[in-house]
Amino acid sequence: MAQQKITASEISKFANAQEEADWWASPQGREFVKGHAKPMSKKPVGGSKLVAKLGKANSVQIALRLPSPDLAKAREIAERKGIGYQTLLKMLVHEGLQRVERPER
User: Fold this and answer.
1) Nearest Cα residue to 31 out of 53, 6, 52, 54
2) What is the pTM of this model?
3) Co-location of 65 and 30 in the same domain
4) For residue 47, what are the contacts with CB-CB under 8 A and spacing of at least 6?
5) Are residues 31 and 57 both part of a single domain?
């Protein structure tokens, strides 16, 4: 059985919010979203070259205990920079390891 195509102008003609919610949850609603969704951009969003480099490396999940004040400070700094706190911590560990590895002058 063929499903009737719904146009964008017809979507706003629901009797109430529940009727609209039921329609969006139906197969017709999902098909409408699939048919009208714009593809996501493949362009890089930007950000730190270090974060991009770290993202390409193989990563291993570990458990790390930090003092609560250090974690709070990391979250505060990360929010100010507009990045996740785990990303910030990875960057700091990476930079610290590079600094320690450099020969002393």
Assistant:
1) 6
2) 0.46
3) no
4) 83
5) no
Q: What is the pLDDT of residues 72-97, one digit of tens each?
A: 999 999 999 999 999 999 999 999 99
Geometric angle at alpha carbon 63, from 61 and 68, rounded to 5°:
135
Q: 3-state SS of the chain? A: CCCCCCCHHHHCCCCCHHHHHHHHHCHHHHHHHHHHCCCCCCCCCCCCHHHHHHHHCCCCCCCCCCCHHHHHHHHHHHHHHCCCHHHHHHHHHHHHHHHHHCCCC
Pull the structure tokens for residue 100: 């320690």
- Is position 59 within any domain? yes
